[in-house]
Amino acid sequence: MACTITDEYERRGLDAVFLENDRLRVELLPGKGGDITEIRDKRTDANVLFEAPHEWRAPATGTVGAPDGAYAFLDHYPGGWQSVLPGAGGPSSARGAPLALHGESSLVPFETRILDSGPERVAVELTASLTRYPFDLEREISLAAGESAIEVTERVTNTGRVSVEYSWLQHVALGEPLVAPEASLSVPCETVYVDPDQTNDTARLPPGETFEWPICETDDGPVDLREFPPADERVHDLVALADLSEGRYTLSNPELDLGVTAEFPESLYEFLWYWRPLGGFEEAPFFGRNYNVGLEPCTSIPNAGLDAAVENGTANELEPGETVESTVRLSTHPAK
């Protein structure tokens, strides 16, 4: 099957773009941050991305409930894969700009231009300018014939006349049926940093502690981060993996004979945030309904937001007129 691309459809009032070949079907929502909401492996008919269980809404409908933008990300979160700028985590502030949870880029509409319509390759370009930060964003998502992989190349340009700090997160969330107790995770890293603000009752790891990958020896016993406890154990942890020898991870499920490998530049993304809401996210908006993991390359820590990353020295800086570029490749394959 040759590659095809179409931008003729909508989802929840948002423009949708579909890229497809004989191995993958990919859905994008340019009107909501350019989110990637489906990467369907045709061999197994599984969407490897997490699909949020709550009634998420398009950003144009406004924040649900009280007029507080801090949790707008969750009000409008469909699951899937977001590119998060200018601040990961939060809420926080930077240079006089209040930043909601996970910044601004995942909520703004992007302009769409089809760059390549097949049959050997399809590609779409998404562009936007942020409001609270002087960032122009360009994103190219492509799919080639005969390949079970999508490639996302992004460029961020500082259009201001002063240098600015930022943190950049690839918010990749993988879900059922790929994520399951029979699945396992491989990451070429050495260090585990438990998020210092982790205080929920369903956390297995003590906040602010440091461990060696992959087994965290706690007072309550070992926790193997390569494994995924069943949902009835109600686990919810957030850690950052560091000291990566390669920018890569693989999550593999032998019962489905399906695996996912993500590759990213570790020179830019020095940390891999590892979000583990395995039936234990008991607060809004999930209330224990989600079983998924986030495996999220990021430039900085912690989850507290950009101002905390500036304070601890892990935030990056972009000079006036400077551009930073990132390419992330996600592929599906038989279980390894």
TrEMBL record:
Instruction: Please list the GO biological process terms of this entry.
Output: carbohydrate metabolic process
GO MF annotation list: carbohydrate binding; catalytic activity
Q: Name one Pfam family in it.
A: DUF4432
The protein in question is named Aldose 1-epimerase
Database matches in SUPFAM superfamilies: Galactose mutarotase-like
